[in-house]
């Protein structure tokens, strides 16, 4: 490391930027595990080497071997957390995130569990290279509970690394793709779906929607698989409308509705652009959910993203019934909590309505944030009471 560039490592931050590297001994290949030394020559960490602005993702601050046993220890620790927070090993839930990258001291790795299947996603070359060891360790940690591992990293690995990665099973295989969340059933399309097939991160926020849905007209915008809609139905909503611009998403929400509330006429889904729908709609909605895709994927897109959130929320404030409740979210890591709140504040002010913040929401406990890596915080939401 360059002199003075070790400070963040001493505070256990798990990234080393390329500009902090003084020199490299030997000839590591992208994805190899490398040892890191301070400018004074003492060992400080080890991690996956990669070409790019983040040069090393730290796996350990100890001098230990990165082998199947190492992955087992890390995965066991992650599994123990999920059991202790009650999302794993319980009767009514088998949908959860087992590994959340830096939040589980495994930078570059995501593993979501859907019933007896794991979907594994690598965001770094090193995790890709080590995928088979990780899969082996995962089988040992989860034992009989695991029947298959689907590896889905086609779009998450750096293109330049030229890995030519294809999605596919790396252990077992499975056609059965129904998973349970808080007693509700969901088809999970890990083969073709977004992310690992489902937005596991909204579980707790969906429960809150359920709590507030009784007797209400509910609109779920950007519904994707319809998670919020299914919870609203169980919460005895008067009617639930789901909207997504993708026709495939509308098929998914309809299928999930059939799984849980077959033939229930309270629900309808529309394949339409959110802004157009909000403009033309005439139904008096008293609970609206806005969970759009990340408007800012990078810092450069920040200003436009904030404008997008303002515009979207302004429409909802304009349309929601008096006494209505608005659930509004941002999953852009580049937009922080204060910026998002400011965008929603601006939208509220444009409507001139009286608005109270009832809840401030965030990602759930199975998407933990490593306290030394605050960048891991990405999901934020507000629940607003609109007079
Ligand atoms: N709320 C969902 C996740 C939303 S993901 C859940 O809980 O699972 C974002 C969704 O927004 C995607 O399904 C995408 O198809 C949809 N989308 C993107 N742009 C849109 C637009 N302009 N209008 C409506 N839907 C849109």
Helix/strand layout:
Blueprint (H helix, E strand, L loop, with lengths): L6 H4 L4 E3 L15 E5 L5 E7 L4 E7 L7 H17 L10 E6 L8 E6 L2 E6 L2 H5 L1 H12 L5 E4 L16 E4 L6 E4 L2 E4 L15 H10 L4 E5 L5 H8 L4 E6 L2 H14 L6 E5 L2 H7 L6 E4 L11 H18 L4 E7 L6 H15 L3 E8 L17 E7 L1
Parallel strand pairs: 7-8, 12-13, 12-15, 13-14, 15-16
Antiparallel strand pairs: 1-4, 2-3, 3-4, 5-6, 6-7, 8-9, 10-11, 16-18, 17-18
S-adenosyl-L-homocysteine (SAH) binds next to helix 6.
User: What's the architecture of the largest domain in CATH terms?
Assistant: 3-Layer(aba) Sandwich
Q: Return the CATH topology of the largest domain.
A: Rossmann fold
End-to-end gap: 57 Å
Quick one: CATH superfamily of the largest domain? Answer: Vaccinia Virus protein VP39
CATH class of the largest domain: Alpha Beta
What is the CA-based Rg, rounded?
22 Å
Q: Helical residue percent?
A: 25-40%
H/E element order? HEEEEHEEEHHEEEEHEHEHEHEHEHEE
Total of domains: 3
**Hey, roughly how much beta strand do the residues contain?**
25-35%
**Distinct ligands:** S-adenosyl-L-homocysteine
In spatial order, strands of the major sheet run 14-13-12-15-16-18-17
Q: How many strands in all? A: 18
Low-confidence stretches: none
Multimerization status = single chain
Shape: globular
pLDDT averaged residue by residue: 95
Given helix and strand content, the structural type is alpha/beta
Number of helices: 10
